[in-house]
């Protein structure tokens, strides 16, 4: 039995569901460390002490500081994160990632003297290595313990924690801006980086008492522990027959994939797996290519360009991200109702319109000659945040944690997340160069990307809401299955037929009680 128990008898909620909420919120603390690491950088990049310590770096070098982090995440996604997640399990993988992030944070905070720039770059790179592990192991854990009908709800808690971490980092950065003594200028930005250690400690201390996911336990031949954990997670929300049915499906899926001899190379060799991999990688690429990375890192600088004071810009960024928490919580309650594709597409529409406004108004009213135009631009930066929080922010991670089989889920998710890192590296380097060369016209590039994403989502991405993780073969095919004898991927027609059959079956059958 799991060594940790959580129950609030006064709540009118099954015990298993209470435990699910606790575990997903707890893992959200891990995601908040990842978020804080990103959020604090935007204020560090405009802190006078940082500029002094690093010899007054150019905007281009600051882009390198932001971008090298994604070199670390890319390296980890491809070579480090997935073996750790499969070997140690989802919970201890998250812990190892947190430790690496903290090591990187200490290096960044110690940047000083002749080697300040090299130390900062090294710290950012190491933080990226750790964040890649955290950013995949947390949603993996949440997806693998959640019931099918509410999986989007629970996995979105990963993004709630992530956004809360960014917001906290921005508020801390704003507060440090007011520590204007000589001591504050020297230590303020350093202390703000180190503070991420505290949520990391809270997360790490409790992990030994957190149960591992049933799917990882089955994959690692611990079936008794897996059955016990699944009962614990479904207590009061599912009857014994439903629990045994879910457990049997997990065991059958793992056994079938083990007999097939699949390994990580199968992701590239097998059509049924590669069709998932390229879709997942493209989804993560689109999630960052839409402009979100630049908004996270350069928001204070963008607001300054609209005539906003540095201190006010930092506060506005913190407010924007705090509001974004509410938007992401809203996503928790709509993603399982409206589906992944609809949420993703709606978010793209909102982000594209926001980019259009921010590109057009500064051209029509240059040099901040219109206060009204500047206010509208700031407002649409906030509206952009709404679009990302209802779309790519949480939904891309939800979708990608669902579509891979247990035996290659960690590898598939990490390889896919590498697509996001590639886009982030490109955006963090292109954005400052684009702003210098094109001014606000750079927004039109990202507007176009968002509009292009919409048909791509509906043509290539089948809806996954409500399906068991073990049922994804019905959408993407099993090993050795080819939908077109000529070798072409005729998956779209297959998906349309299967979606219709699945909707009909939902209407004609009674779904198991969901947590």
TrEMBL record:
Annotated region described as Disordered, given as residue ranges: 494-515
Compartments, as annotated in UniProt: Membrane
TM region(s), chain numbering: 20-39, 59-80, 92-109, 121-141, 153-174, 186-210, 342-365, 371-400, 412-431, 443-461
Chain ranges of the Major facilitator superfamily (MFS) profile domain: 23-465
Principal subcellular localisation of the protein: membrane
Keyword flag Cell membrane: no
InterPro entries per the UniProt record, alphabetical: MFS_dom, MFS_sugar_transport-like, MFS_Sugar_Transporters, MFS_trans_sf, Sugar/inositol_transpt
GO cellular component, one term: membrane
Coiled coil: none
Family designation: Belongs to the major facilitator superfamily. Sugar transporter (TC 2.A.1.1) family.
Protein name: MFS monosaccharide transporter
